[in-house]
Structure formats: C-alpha cells, structure tokens
Write a sequence for this structure.
C-alpha cells in the first residue's frame, strides 16, 4: 500500500489520484443537484467540499458512494471505473461512507453496529479493538443501544463502523451536523490518527472554518457547480466567501463551460 | 372446569399460530412486505408433502425434511425475482402482487387438486393418542409436540437473529437499508434469506396443520392468513416472543368463543383481533426500538 | 410589463389553462351515444347476454370504486366485499319486509354508505398493509355475524321472497336497465368527485401528504368521503347482485373473490385512471367468457396478467394507450397551452395520475 503523504500539501500529482470524478451530473427528479462537477483526490489527502445548504455536497458524496445514479459523468476509484458499480460493491472495494445524520442501526448495540461494519472488512489495521482504542469511552458501553448515546458518541460509532471495514477512502458527510462545536473539534481531532493508517479522507462540511482547519485541499460548490478549488493556504477568506455565496465578484466561476483542468494545475484564481 | 381443557388446547394451538405468523412478521419487519399469499404458502407446503409422500412413500414425518428446504429455496427465488421487482416499484405494488399470487396459488390448487380437504395422516400411533392430567384434562400428544416444535423454532430464530452474523445483517438491513449497503451488505440477498426463512417456517407450520387438522385450497386465506396476522398484530411486530404471545391469546380467545357457542370460535378470535387493531395497533409487546 | 413578461419575454395573458386537450363536448356526446345504445340492448339481444352484461355492470361498478380507493386515495382495501354483502343483505332484509326489490336497491346503497362511517372509524388510522388486512378481517367478521341471523337465512342464505310478478324476459330487461343506471351513476360520481376540490386534495395528498396537510387540505375528511362513496358504490353493486340472482348467500356475496375481480380489473385496465376500470372490466369479461368452461383458469390467468402488469406496466393497459395517443376520455387534469408552441404538442400536462414517483 502506498505511503500516505506525511503532511497536507506537498506535490499532489506525484502519483495517481485514488478517486477521480469527471463531469458528474445528478438529478433529483427534475432538479439538477450536480452540474458537471469534477474533482481529483490523491492518496493521503484530506479533501474538503464546502458550500451552503442545497449546494449539492451531500449528493456528490452519496453519488460517489453509489447511492445515487449520475445522468452524466464518471467516477474512477483506484483507476477503475465504478460509475455503474452497486454501493455495496464499492464499500467492499474500499470506499466507506459515514452518512449524514449518522444512520446507526437503532436496534443494534454499539458493538453490533461495529460488527456489521466489519462484515465484509478488508484486511488492514482497523479492528473493533482499534476503534475502542481510538474512542476511549466506547468499550465500556459497547453493549448499549445506540439511541442512548449522545450525538457526538453516535458520530464516533458511525465513524468506527466505517473504519472497521478498512477502507482506502473514507467519505465523511457533514460530521458537524447537530453537534456542539467542542464535540466537533474533538472528532475532527481524530483525523490525524485515521490518516496515519493510510486512509484518504473526502469530507463534506458546512462549517467552513472547521473545514479550512483540517483540509489539505478544498472545493466549494454552489447550486451544483464548482465555484472554487484549491489549497486552503492559497485562497483568501474573501474568495471563499464569494464562492460560497455566489457573489458576482468571485473570480472565474467554473461550470459547464470550462474544464477544471486541462493538463495544468492552475487554481481557479486565474481565469 | 371444562374450560381448563379448552384453554390449555387454546394455548397449545397458539404455538401453531405463532409458527404460521413468524414468517409473516419477519418479512414485514425486514422488507416491509405484507405477504398476502402467506397463508396459501402453508397450504402449498401441505400439498407438497402430500405429493412427496404419495410419490416416494416416505413416512409422514420425513416429509418435513424434503418440503421445508424446498420451500425455503422457492422463497429465496421468488423474493429475488417477483417480490423484489414489485418492491422496486412501491409498497402498493407488493400488496397487489402478493394478493395476485394468493389468488393464482389458490385457483391453481383448485384446478389441479380438487376442492376437497386433505389431511396428512401421522402414521405413528403414539402421536395420535393423548395423555391425561387428572380427570379433567386430556391433551393430544400431537398438539403438545407441535407446541414444543413451535417454541423451539421460534427460539432458534430468535437466537439466530440476535447472535449470528447473518442475523445481525438481517436486523441491520431491517433498520436501515441504505446504511447496510454502505457497510457492504447486498440487501437483496438479505431479503432473499429472510423470505427463505419465512417460506420454510410457514411450510413447516402448514404440514403440522395438515397433521392436526385438514386443509383445502382455500384454507390459506379462509383461516391461516388472518390467524397469522392476528398473532403478529396482537403480539406486536418486532418480537418473536410477542408473536408467540399473540398466537396464544388468539388460541385462547377461540377456545373461549367455542365454549360460548360452537360457531363463534373464529368470530371470537377476529373480534379480539379487531379490538387490538383499533385500540393498540402496535400490539401487546411494543417493539423495543423506535422504527 | 409583468414580472413574468420581463423574465420570459412573454405575456402571461396569452397562456391558457384548460381541463382537456380537445373539446370535451365530443367525449360527452360520445358517452351519451354509448349509453343510449346500451339502453337499447334489451330490444336486440337475448336474455343470456343480458345476464352477462349485468355481471359486467357489477364488476365495472366495483372496479371504479376500488380504483377510487386505491388509485386516488391510496387506500388499498381487500375487504370491499363487505359492502357487496351488506348491499345484498339490505335488499334481502327490505324485501322480506315487502319492499319491492328494485326500490330496495337505492336504499341498500345508501344504507351501505351509512354503515361505512363506523367501519371507517375502525380502520382509518391504519396504514397501507395494516389497513388492507383490517378491511379483510372486517369483512370476514361481518359475514360471520350475519350468518348468525336466522331470519336472513343463516349460513345457507335465502331467496328474495317478494319478486315482482313479471315475465322473466321483462324482469331481465328491468334488471339490465337498473344495472346500466347504477354503472352510469357510479362512473359519473367518480368523474365529478375527481373534478371537484376533493379530487385536487386527493392528488395533492398522493404527491406529498405532508405538504398537502400543511396547505390546509383536510386529508382525513377527503379519505373518509372516498371510503363512504366507495361503500355506496359497492353496496349498490351488491344490491344489483341480489336483484339479478334473486338469492342471497353469505359465502357468495361476502367472498373475497369480489375484491380479486375488482382489483384485477383495475390493475389490468389501469390504476388511477377513470378509463382504466372500463378497459379492465372488458378484458375481464372477455377472459371470463372464453375460459368459462375451464373453471378456475380465468382467475389464474387474470391473476398472472395482473401481476405482470402491476410490475411492468404500472398504469395498466389504458396507461399504455394514454402514453401513445395522449387521449383522456374523462378529463380531470389540467392542460397548459404555451402560445409559443401552438400547433405542436408542447402542452404540459398536470393532474391526477397514479403511478407518480410515490405510487
């Protein structure tokens, strides 16, 4: 398995992207939720997708996980085209998603939730015991029903459930939803330990400052289109704000017209 | 004092009703399918047993070994094809399709068999006799055996669901299909397993019923389906022991009804069913978790 | 210029909203012609055919009621036979008390409507599958209760004691006309109901119940009205059954086969359209007549066809016709005409159709 980049940043394009999305277009009924969105995630990165409510962030993640079908576009994972692959097959190949709202199995205990996650686990460092080490409180309460846990604890169990499958790419959908800021910080604080085992993280986050803090690369969506893409260090707060809200002063609105890359790595600042 | 005998019979027959019901409960709990053909499947099991015995001349008790796995496989196949196709459309469609299946099965049986009743002779004289406790109570061995089998099967199912890997998968899919997919579980396969268990248990119950009583092509909808549903509703969805309790309550209501007047046996059961449906549709033992 | 005109460059006044694509007067006249022709049948055809037509009327009435329940109100009932039975027994009970049977029919229908109210109260809070089973249990329970009444014939049933002293040909003709009247009234009632506000409420509920409720739609009331109307309709069909058979037997009038027949006719013809039940009934009658000598076969085939259609052609045979020809005989939806696209089929169609994404 390739070694993870030691730190966010460094030359992205040294190797092949582990996840590549091209011109993805997704409809919810008659509403176009994603309009020719593209992205590339390289191993070891923390790739953050930000944007306002309804921008299409969760749809993007869910489509990558296989829960939505795109009308156009393709998804390549580890070099293979997975656009038509069923969600459970993607999961067993190494794409694990922590869905929005946790979605724990209510009638199962904490440990049973983890056991289900491990049903078709790949080989790797993550085991249920490892998860108990990551979240110190969990082992003691492993036989409790998930309904009795707090929001932050449930989120931890959901993350653990995805980890025990030993994925290569971890998709995190709106971790901060419904949680107190202090709890959110604590959970995001786990990311380094997760990354240290060789995972790549693609996350969706409404809380922009939180995303900027953990991301090694970010992309902003607005009404299904990409409005910004680059490294956190390379974008100014004003640019982020403009991209987030879709103000006319935002430079180079990416959309149906212009491909995100055409062989160069210029960021969207240049038009 | 005459009542005690009937009440005990009612309790024991409740085990049979629970055996009918557990497959229905499973299919509804896991895939939200109300299988209106469920009762007819029990009758199919009975007819298959008759057919197998007629052709191979094996002892009646061995018919279980042949028919139950056969029906389980049939359940898996039917689920993966017809019922899944209906599920992909909507719940309304599954209701219509299972209703259609029920009509097709019944009329198919009417066409190829006669409308007469069949019964599976048990052959073993010990089982057909009964034993007595005191001077008031006489219990048929067969009925007691059926009750024991029912409890064992229900207990086995409960153990399977709560301890085994597949049982966990089934419960997970029942809770949240999508989240289960994200954990790598093909819910269609899990649905198939659940249907296989449902078909197998209902065939088991059907053969047992055939030993104890008689069945005809329309028995499936005349009696069995509604009894099964009554047991599930009265006991509460989501709990197999609740289904047993529901079956027992139904059996006892019928026994009491029979005491009041011979023809009121079934009516009493239906009235209890309606009362529970109206007053407490979640059943006597409400499901532990919210759904 | 209005805001709309500003953004689209077109004036809102030029848009037209109509209830139907073509002039509905033609359909109305056509329907009238059909009814008149049917009314003349007794002078043309023999008594045997009349009996078959009456059977068809019964099925058609039942089918349009079941369609109203399942296709528009989302209520899948497998217990409608309770009203068939009650309708028949009302006629019997009235006839025993010397009410002429033809006069008893409308009274029986109303009686079933009244009976529907407490029955609705019993089942109204239940959802889909539970609702279905509850209606079935209800039907079985009512049957068992009625079988205890000896004055009504207990389990074996009773013939109508006071039939009119007419020749059998005239009796058949009268029965036929009454049957025709019942069917026409039933279809008319369904049509008017769906064109009314109630129909709009039902469509809204079918698309999004929460949104409908929060817009003020009285969903519970709408469903109850539908249930009662269906009760009246099925009761009328049951009364017609009693009148045409001249005998009422509990196992026949309360049989779940009635639900099978009306449901299959609707599914095959097209759930959620008014034309569907008509087409479905025709298919059903044709099948029944051609396979009559093969006993249970027609139900087997009917059932299999219904299953296949339910899965693969959700909107039934009429749905297929509608898809290809864009014909709607009973216009209950709305058509939006875009002036810029005059002459081409660019009109947008809104309106009541089961088979939307939620069905």
């Amino acid at each position: 398995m390739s070694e993870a980049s030691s730190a966010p940043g460094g030359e992205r394009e040294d190797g092949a992207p582990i996840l590549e999305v091209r011109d993805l277009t997704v409809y919810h009924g008659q509403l176009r939720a994603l309009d020719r969105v593209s992205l590339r995630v390289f191993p070891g990165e923390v790739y953050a997708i930000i944007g306002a409510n309804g921008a299409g962030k969760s749809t993007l993640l869910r489509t990558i996980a296989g829960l939505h079908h795109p009308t156009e576009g393709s998804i390549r994972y580890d070099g293979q085209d997975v656009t038509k692959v069923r969600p459970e097959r993607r999961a067993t190949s190494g794409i694990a998603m922590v869905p929005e709202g946790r979605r724990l199995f209510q009638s199962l205990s904490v440990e049973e939730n983890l056991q289900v996650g491990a049903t078709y686990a790949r080989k790797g460092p993550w085991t249920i015991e490892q998860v108990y080490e990551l979240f110190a409180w969990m082992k003691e309460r492993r036989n409790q029903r998930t309904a009795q846990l707090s929001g932050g604890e449930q989120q931890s169990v959901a993350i653990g459930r995805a980890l025990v499958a030993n994925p290569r790419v971890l998709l995190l959908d709106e971790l901060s939803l419904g949680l107190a800021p202090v709890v959110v910080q604590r959970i995001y604080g786990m990311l380094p330990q997760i990354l240290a085992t060789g995972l790549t993280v693609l996350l969706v986050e409404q809380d922009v400052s939180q995303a900027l803090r953990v991301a090694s690369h970010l992309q902003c969506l607005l009404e299904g289109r990409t409005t910004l893409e680059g490294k956190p260090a390379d974008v100014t707060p004003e640019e982020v704000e403009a991209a987030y809200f879709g103000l006319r002063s935002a430079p180079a609105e990416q959309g149906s017209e212009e491909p995100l890359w055409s062989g160069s790595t210029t960021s969207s600042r240049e038009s | 004092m005459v009542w005690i005998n009937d009440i005990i019979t009612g309790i024991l027959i409740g085990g049979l009703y629970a055996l009918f019901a557990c497959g229905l409960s499973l299919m509804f709990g896991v895939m939200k399918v109300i299988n209106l053909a469920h009762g007819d499947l029990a009758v199919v099991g009975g007819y298959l047993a008759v057919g197998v015995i007629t052709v191979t001349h094996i002892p009646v008790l061995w018919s279980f070994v042949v028919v139950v796995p056969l029906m389980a496989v049939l359940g898996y196949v039917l689920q993966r094809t017809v019922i899944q196709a209906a599920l992909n459309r909507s719940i309304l469609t599954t209701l219509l399709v299972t209703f259609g299946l029920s009509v097709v099965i019944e009329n198919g049986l009417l066409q190829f068999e006669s409308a007469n009743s069949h019964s599976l002779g048990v052959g073993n004289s010990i089982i057909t006799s009964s034993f007595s406790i005191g001077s008031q109570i006489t219990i048929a061995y067969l009925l007691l055996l059926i009750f024991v089998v029912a409890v064992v099967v229900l207990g086995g199912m409960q153990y399977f669901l709560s301890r085994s890997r597949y049982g966990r998968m089934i419960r997970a899919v029942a809770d949240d299909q999508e989240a289960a997919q994200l954990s790598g579980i093909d819910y269609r396969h899990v649905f198939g397993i659940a249907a296989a268990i449902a078909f197998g248990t209902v065939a088991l119950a059907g053969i047992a019923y055939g030993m104890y009583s008689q069945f005809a092509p329309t028995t499936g909808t005349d009696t069995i389906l509604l009894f099964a549903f009554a047991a599930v509703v009265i006991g509460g969805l989501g709990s197999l022991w609740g289904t047993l309790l529901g079956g027992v309550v139904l059996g006892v209501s019928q026994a009491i009804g029979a005491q009041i007047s011979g023809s009121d046996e079934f009516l009493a059961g239906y009235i209890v069913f309606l009362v529970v449906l109206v007053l407490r549709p979640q059943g006597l033992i409400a499901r532990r978790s919210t759904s | 210029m209005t805001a709309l005109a500003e953004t689209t460059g077109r004036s809102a006044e030029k848009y037209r909203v109509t209830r139907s694509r073509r002039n509905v007067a033609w359909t109305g006249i056509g329907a009238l012609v059909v009814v008149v022709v049917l009314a003349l049948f007794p002078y043309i055809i023999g008594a045997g055919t009349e009996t078959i037509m009456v059977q068809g009327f019964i099925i058609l009435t039942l089918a349009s009621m079941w369609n109203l329940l399942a296709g528009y109100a989302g209520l899948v009932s497998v217990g409608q036979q309770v009203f068939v039975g009650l309708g028949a027994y009302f006629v019997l009970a009235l006839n025993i008390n010397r009410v002429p049977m033809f006069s008893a029919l409308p009274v029986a229908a109303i009686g079933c409507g009244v009976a529907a109210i407490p029955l609705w109260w019993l089942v109204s809070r239940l959802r889909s599958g539970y609702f279905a089973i509850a209606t079935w249990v209800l039907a079985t329970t009512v049957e068992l209760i009625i079988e205890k009444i000896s004055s009504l014939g207990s389990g074996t049933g009773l013939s109508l004691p006071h039939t009119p002293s007419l020749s059998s040909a005239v009796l058949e003709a009268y029965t036929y006309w009454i049957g025709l009247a019942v069917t026409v009234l039933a279809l008319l009632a369904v049509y008017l109901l769906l064109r009314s506000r109630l129909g709009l409420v039902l469509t809204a509920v079918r698309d999004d119940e929460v949104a409908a409720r929060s817009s003020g739609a009285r969903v519970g009331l709408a469903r109850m009205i539908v249930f009662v109307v269906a009760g009246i309709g099925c009761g009328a069909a049951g009364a017609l059954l009693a009148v045409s058979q001249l005998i009422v037997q509990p196992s026949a009038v309360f049989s779940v086969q009635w639900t099978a027949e009306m449901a299959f006719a609707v599914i095959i013809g097209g759930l959620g359209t008014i034309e569907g039940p008509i087409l479905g009934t025709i298919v059903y009658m044709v099948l029944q007549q051609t396979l009559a000598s093969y006993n249970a076969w027609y139900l087997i085939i009917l059932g299999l066809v219904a299953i296949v259609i339910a899965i693969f052609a959700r909107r039934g045979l009429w749905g297929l016709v509608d898809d290809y020809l864009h014909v709607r005989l009973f216009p209950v939806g709305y058509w939006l005409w875009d002036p810029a696209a005059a002459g081409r089929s660019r009109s947008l169609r809104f309106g009541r159709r089961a088979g939307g994404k939620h069905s």
About this structure: Chain C has one domain: 3-350. The beta strands of chain C are 16-18, 158-159, 247-248, 334-337, 348-350. The first strand of chain C starts at residue 16 and ends at 18. The longest helix of chain C spans residues 168-195.
